[in-house]
From TrEMBL:
Top-level taxonomic group: Bacteria
Keywords annotated in UniProt: Hydrolase
Entries under PANTHER family matching the protein: ISOCHORISMATASE HYDROLASE, PEROXYUREIDOACRYLATE/UREIDOACRYLATE AMIDOHYDROLASE-RELATED
Stored Pfam families: Isochorismatase (PF00857)
Coiled coil regions in record: none
MF terms (GO), sorted A to Z: hydrolase activity
Domain Isochorismatase-like residue range list: 3-174
UniProt organism field: Massilia cellulosiltytica
Name recorded for this polypeptide: Isochorismatase family protein
Length: 181
């Protein structure tokens, strides 16, 4: 079994107040992967960020904390609520995967350099065979530590470079779909 982990595909990620993003095809690719997993009846884990800050768009009760309609969980799918970027920290996700004998995970979602990267690093460190799907993730423009504004694509590619070969195997949607169907 291979679990599909969909990270933070919440309504708050569609806010027009967010910085410019990359990969406008990410949602379509995530939807293709989700459809394939559901068709094969493989495990799907939907992760959402629940902020501890009452003013956050991800605070409990805010519409931004809700899953986007295309990624709403089915009744039998596992939902993980996290308060930090890493979906393994204080959520029981590792235990849930181990209890089902799942040793392989495919990670998609947002944002590449934050929750996706943090979750993939931990998955790899915990010994899971981890794939991050490059074209099924996205991120936002960000100013680096030296004060230079980096485009979302630059931030995305650096995050993927940080992961590939050490914590995860970075692949494309087509490659993943070709290997699991």
């Amino acid at each position: 079994m291979i679990a599909l982990l969909i990270i933070d595909m919440q309504k708050g990620m569609q806010s027009p107040t967010l910085p410019p993003r990359n990969n406008p095809q990410a949602e379509a690719n995530i939807a293709r992967l989700l459809a394939a997993w559901r068709e094969r009846e493989e495990p799907v884990v939907l992760v959402r960020h629940i902020s501890r800050s009452p003013t956050s768009v991800f605070a409990p009760g805010q519409s931004g904390a809700e899953f986007q309609e295309a990624f709403a969980p089915l009744a039998h799918e596992h939902v993980v609520e996290k308060n930090v970027p890493d979906a393994f920290v204080n959520t029981g996700l590792e235990r849930w995967l181990h209890a089902r004998g799942i040793r392989d995970v495919v990670i998609v979602g947002v944002s590449t350099n934050n929750s996706v990267e943090a979750t993939a690093r931990t998955a790899g460190n915990l010994g899971f065979s981890t794939v991050v799907v490059a074209d099924a993730c996205f991120t936002f423009d960000k100013t680096d530590f030296g004060g230079t504004l980096r485009s979302a694509e630059e931030v995305h590619l650096m995050a993927l470079a940080n992961l590939h070969g050490e914590y995860a195997d970075v692949r494309s949607t087509a490659d993943v779909l070709g290997s699991v169907t």
